[in-house]
């Protein structure tokens, strides 16, 4: 009998999805709530359910009730990913063809490279709101600051948003001397100050819970975009969260990466036999460092782990509240990170050298440099490329690059649309652009052909509902393609094959070819051996460039790396033997004192 009732309920839900938007606007009680939780610079292997030692019970509970995806892609940096998430359109058309902060001279003034989410696209909250959803946003926006570009102007009914790309978690301190104050909005108004006892992750959660409660009585479903700032640097967090992993990371990054990969294989996240990507050539083997240096570096990772655990705690607060008000079982959760983990020293990049304006600004506003003050207001800590590679285990490289470590992310989906076994793992090829068509289908909304009399660009994603229902293993066939370009680094994937071009020295300055099924760590460039496959994928890349107006930048944030980093060399364990040779110990029976 219960099974029969369940079938009737499912049939009713499917019928609701098939209704036209005007009917759905009047019949909103059957449709699920939607919560998208975005971690800023959260790494592929950081959550416990993806192999991390970091304690994330709330996120892991969602994974254990839903499904984990191991072949999910975003873009290589934050605002391009956010623009694709909210528009379903390629970055080179939606306005984020390059990040606003790094727009190249040859991209200025070109449509698709405005540096903000342009007015030639429709947004997900706008379309959901049109069919009767409440639409809420908390957290980092990074898609424009003008009144017609902020969340309230792009479909969000309620918001509490940081408009900048980063900054303090404690106050309005921004990163550069030219823009010393972060900009926030609340419900479409620019804030003059922050709430009392503000701490970003906590306050975002408090605000969202308030938004949900304020409209509960009308029975309408809600869409909540929870764009957390955490765990983006600077690593700011309350004192009680800073010492949960004391000394744990003194063992160094190699050991932690190896342990994470073992857990990933045990969990089924990665197949048996998976190799780690090479430790990047400019990162030392941690066992060659002095104990104090290892401990100091380990403390940075301790802070990062605390940031992730604090994020998980506040996700848990939201989940507990939805359970308390009876909405949890009718809520879809989508959880992922916006790009690879951050391995670049942003603080050093921005502050520059003594005598620079931003160096002086940093000395004044970010002056708390003692390790005992790390995490406090006025401190600025990131964890560097060594720990970013740990966060991206087992992949190569990190944020900003077209290697797997820059664009592949952990994805969790749970809630009433998931009919796969609880806790299952899927290896289908997914993309952040898929979220728009998926959620429009869930809500019974349609993607319009025009907006304000102007033709809209087509959606580039595919609905996940066949995969979530268990009717398909991937939304894509082996012939479908995905492509990326950011800062001039670019790539294309078709099936298991990946074409990649990157600036030196992270790339070769030429095309590389990888078989990701057998080499997810991108260790073996097959371009010379498989000229046929290289040629075929290059034709697909050229087609992508034409269709999406891709303009490769004539300037890049990475343009000096080949001169400033040491020459790239292979990563061979134990080389050079000189620094690994331990003290020779003579046989005890042959020991003697010198003769008189």
Automatic annotation (TrEMBL):
Stored InterPro entries: Alkaline_phosphatase_core_sf, Sulfatase, Sulfatase_CS, Sulfatase_N
Gene Ontology terms for molecular function: arylsulfatase activity; metal ion binding
Pfam family of the protein (one): Sulfatase
Keyword Calcium tagged: yes
Signal peptide: 1-25
Keywords: Calcium, Hydrolase, Metal-binding, Signal
Domain Sulfatase N-terminal: 32-445
SUPFAM superfamilies recorded: Alkaline phosphatase-like (SSF53649)
Family: Belongs to the sulfatase family.
Protein name: Arylsulfatase
Organism, scientific name: Allochromatium humboldtianum
């Amino acid at each position: 009998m219960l099974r029969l009732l369940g079938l009737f309920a499912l049939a009713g839900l499917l019928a609701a999805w098939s209704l036209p938007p005007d009917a759905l606007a009047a019949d909103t009680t059957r449709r699920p709530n939607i919560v998208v939780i975005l971690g800023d610079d959260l790494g592929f292997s950081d959550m416990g359910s993806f192999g991390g030692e970091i304690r994330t019970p709330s996120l892991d509970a969602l994974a254990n009730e839903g499904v984990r995806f191991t072949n999910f892609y975003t873009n290589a940096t934050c605002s391009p990913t956010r623009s694709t998430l909210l528009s379903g359109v390629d970055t080179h058309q939606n306005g984020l063809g390059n990040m606003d902060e790094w727009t190249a001279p040859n991209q200025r003034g070109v449509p698709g490279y405005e540096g903000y989410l342009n007015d030639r696209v429709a947004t997900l909250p706008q379309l959901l709101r049109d069919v009767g959803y409440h639409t809420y946003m908390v957290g980092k926006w990074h898609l424009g600051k003008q009144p017609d570009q902020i969340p309230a102007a792009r479909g969000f009914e309620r918001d509490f948003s940081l408009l900048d790309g980063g900054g303090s978690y404690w106050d309005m301190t921004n990163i550069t001397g030219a823009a010393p104050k972060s900009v926030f909005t609340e419900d479409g108004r620019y804030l003059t100050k922050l709430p009392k006892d503000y701490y970003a992750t906590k306050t975002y959660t408090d605000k969202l819970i308030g938004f949900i409660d304020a409209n509960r009585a009308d029975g309408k479903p809600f869409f909540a975009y929870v764009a957390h700032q955490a765990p983006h640097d600077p690593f700011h967090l309350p004192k009680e969260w800073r010492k949960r992993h004391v000394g744990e990371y003194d063992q160094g990054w190699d050991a932690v990466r190896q342990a994470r990969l073992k857990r990933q294989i045990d969990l089924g996240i990665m197949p048996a036999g998976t190799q780690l990507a090479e430790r990047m050539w400019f990162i030392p083997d941690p066992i060659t460092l002095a104990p104090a240096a290892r401990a100091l570096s380990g403390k940075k990772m301790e802070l990062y782990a605390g940031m992730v655990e604090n994020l998980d705690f506040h996700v848990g607060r939201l989940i507990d509240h939805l359970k308390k008000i009876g909405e949890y079982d009718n809520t879809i959760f989508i959880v992922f990170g916006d790009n690879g983990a951050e391995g670049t020293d942003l603080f050093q990049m921005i502050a520059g050298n003594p005598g620079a304006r931003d160096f002086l600004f940093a000395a004044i506003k970010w002056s708390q440099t003692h390790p005992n003050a790390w995490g406090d207001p006025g401190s600025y800590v990131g964890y560097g490329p060594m720990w970013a590679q740990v966060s991206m285990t087992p992949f190569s490289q990190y944020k900003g690059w077209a290697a797997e470590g820059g664009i592949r992310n952990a994805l969790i989906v749970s809630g009433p649309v998931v009919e796969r076994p609880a806790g299952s793992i899927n290896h289908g090829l997914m993309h952040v652009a898929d979220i728009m068509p998926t959620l429009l289908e869930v809500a019974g909304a349609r993607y319009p052909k025009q907006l304000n009399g102007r033709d809209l660009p087509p959606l580039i994603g595919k609905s996940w509902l066949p995969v979530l229902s268990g009717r398909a293993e991937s939304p894509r066939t082996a012939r479908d393609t995905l492509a990326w370009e950011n800062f001039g680094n670019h790539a294309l994937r078709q099936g298991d094959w990946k074409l990649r071009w990157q600036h030196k020295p992270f790339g070769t300055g030429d095309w590389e070819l990888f078989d990701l099924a057998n080499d997810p760590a991108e260790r073996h460039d097959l371009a010379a051996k498989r000229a046929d496959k290289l040629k075929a994928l290059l034709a697909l890349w050229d087609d992508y460039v034409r269709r999406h107006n891709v303009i490769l930048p004539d300037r890049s944030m990475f343009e000096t790396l080949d001169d400033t980093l040491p020459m790239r060399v292979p990563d061979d364990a134990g080389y050079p033997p000189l620094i690994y040779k331990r003290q020779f110990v003579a046989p005890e029976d042959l020991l003697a004192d010198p003769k008189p």
